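Bench log. Compound arrived from synthesis this morning; before running ITC I wanted a structural hypothesis for how IPE sits in the protein. Inputs:
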Amino acid sequence: MEKDSKIPAHVSIIMDGNGRWARERGQERVSGHKKGVESVRTCLEAAVEAGVKYLSLYAFSEENWDRPKTEVDFLMKLMFDSISAEMESLMKNGVRFRVLGNKARLNPVLQDAVAGMENMSRNNDRIELIVFLSYSGRWDIFQAAKKFAYQYLSQPDGMERLEKENDFAAFSQFLVTDGVPDPDLIIRTSGEKRLSNYLLWQGAYSELVFVDKNWPDFGKEDFFNALSEYSSRDRRYGKVK
Ligand code: IPE
Ligand code: IPE
Ligand code: MG
């Protein structure tokens, strides 16, 4: 990276193309998911090297529950195994680990493993690794809207106050990403050019980079290239510069 390049505080990745990676090699889809874990490790290293403070990964969407049970089960087990296998290295490297999403849908054993790792790493502050699991943007906005409304409606003059409310930041506190800055950069691999229900609220002004490689082939150089691309973008937020 160039010395004067702008480093995004929060980089988010839609890790796509595991199935295609496997199919191209005549293998089962799940072998692509397995291989994809290596890219996670590589990107985490690259993010630390670059000085990124938050690396978030879209690992499993609410819609992904509708995939064949064997694939879903494999992905959940892979998540569990990866947490167990990486625990030591994450701690050694000062990584705070969190899972965000509709966690109630995860099986209790995985929920416990996640909670344990989140707890153990809570004071690490070199980088935050956020895994979005059972997540969708619409689900997030919807659950936040309900909590936001309840907060008012439980008060006598609540309806009136809710009518007048227009503080977006107050609403954002109910999203699962409360306390996490909006992603500066969202990368999607596999050549697809869509958000697939990811960070719909938080990504309002994210820079988007689409990469043609499948996730298991995405390496350090690709990560740094995306940062360079980000660095050349002019973020205007609707204003005139
Ligand atoms: C991304 O790879 C991983 C998940 C969505 C869980 P895919 O499994 O979507 O791979 P493709 O898009 O079918 O190639
Ligand atoms: C998006 O990928 C979800 C994740 C990467 C976890 P999908 O493969 O599920 O998205 P679509 O079906 O191509 O939109
Ligand atoms: Mg896909």
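What the model suggests: The mean pLDDT is 97. The chain is about 45% helix and 15% strand.
ITC booked for Thursday regardless.
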